[in-house]
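Data card: per-record layout.
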Amino acid sequence: MKIKLSIILLLFLSLAIFSFIKNDTSTTQKINENYNNRLLNFKQQITILLTHIENKNTNKALLQQQYLDIRKSFKSNQYLLEYAEPILIKDYINSAPLPKLEANSFGANTLQPHGLQVIDELIFSDTVDKESIIEELNILQKTMNAMGQHYFYDRDVFIAARIEMIRIASMGITGFDVPASGNAITDVASSINAIHTDLKIYKSLIESKQMQLSDSLFIKLNQTENYLMENQNFGSFNRFYFTQNYINPLFELLLNVHILLGYEMPNEFNNKPQAVNYLSKNIFDAQFLNAAYYLNIPNIYNTPQNIALGKLLFFDPILSENNQRACASCHNPIKGFTDNAAKSIGYNFNGTLKRNAPSLLNCVYSDRYFHDLRARGLTDQMEHVITSKAEFNTDWHSILEKLKHSNEYMQMFKAIYKNEALGIQQVQFSIAAYVGSLNGFNSTFDKLMKDANFKINNKQNIVKGYNLFMGKAVCGTCHFAPVFNGTVPPYYTDSESEILGVAENPNDKIQHLSEDKGRGQALLKEQVPFYEYSFKTPIIRNIALTAPYMHNGAYKNLQAVMKFYNNGGGEGVGIHLPYQTLATDKLELSKKEIADIISFMNALTDNPFIEDTPKFLPSFKDSTLLNSRKIGGVY
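The structure for this 635-residue chain is written out next.
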């Protein structure tokens, strides 16, 4: 009897496993069929437009519509296609219309822009350059034909869909990849529709496990599509409402379904650190990005104990040659971790530094540092400051020798780094741990975005300002949500720089370009014409605390900055640069619109570290001079 029971149980188990495998296979099979059909359609749409242009069809409206058909086909497959081929898409299929250097190459290998964004500008220009369009379409066609095949698993569908929600919230609704056609909202609708179509394949499976969650997901998808259908106008589109009520809820629902179905999470099949915290439920969550990813120090040293040690070092002028200058000298917490000077004071009060001191609040969310992007990581950044004759004017050997004469410091280092001899790396890791902890996503704007019931008097102005920032004013195409800096979504691994045409003195009647060439004179590999006068895109969070602005501190307030952008950057005031990345067209923003944008930027203020100054500094034996040093430095 027991043997029969065991056989029945085994048979039942086998059928259950077979049923699961069959179901799993059928879902992936349908997903891959959808993907391949859409991929084929994308290729066919390219061929149709190419054929029309080659056959001398010059009906501009028809050509533009056929191009929009290509876009619709691409956007319908983008969430899976970019998941599978992110670099290929970024460099050849949907490249920003600007030259750049090839990543990870030994030499300065220039990549010219290719793909849909280039065609967008060409086909929606005043005069249609047919030869250039044909050339771009041929490259696009060859690239697509050479692309390898991909097979997607169930886990990939949910991961890719959530990545697409990030892409939509940070780039899609801004018009980032439609520089001329203004087709952004239609693009978003195509992406959502494709995700909705693919997720229907899983509907019965989700229902069988949790009907309420299934209903919530598919009702929200229907509502999202309806909202996009009813709100097609780019200028009036309510990005705040859309993100708060549709994209963020979908971002959370997709995670909940992914967990419910038990498919692998990214960390279960990919052991590489990720910038985005996949388990975050809101794109504006404080933990949406992993600060530890950018820190690039061993996790065992990213501890409260080491942060506390790093804080002491940050405020200690012992790091400078004359024991009078600390990191906090130029990065004062009361001033948003800046010094509110156009350019910081030079070593021993000798003139000023070359550039404005940037804020350190949320600075960790970046892969490169300084206005010219010359440092790759916080630890590399310290090297430049320590050895600069205009800043700390010293060397690591001198610093380490001084620290060894403090029993208090040595005890703290030993408690954290155990039996390791005191070296450069320990000091760097400790300071980096502290600077990496200076982040916050609890501003008024964050509260508004995450809580529909949060009350504030000027909510309407803030919301209007955000919608303008992410729309008409095109600020969001460079200052990417949710950090509002130049770290590029949806993976947030690369930092961008921009050529704006910043004036030496914006108050001059005839304005002249700032002579600082920025990125174009920093790293040897990047000394190319299209990086001259290019500067790192700064963070907008806490901008109300960090005046004056730009790399040279020449713009005294936000009104001056907005006037500069509203006029089309340098081009608008007679500064002509061949590679200006800022759109040269006037934005035509009214005074009220500018005021609303500033209201939004002010609402990004969140400095919980304003009183972060330590109460004491470690003492040194047998040194009255060192023990009288000032917390935060003299200047």
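Known properties of this structure: The first helix runs from residue 2 to 54. The radius of gyration is 27 Å.

See the next section for split statistics.
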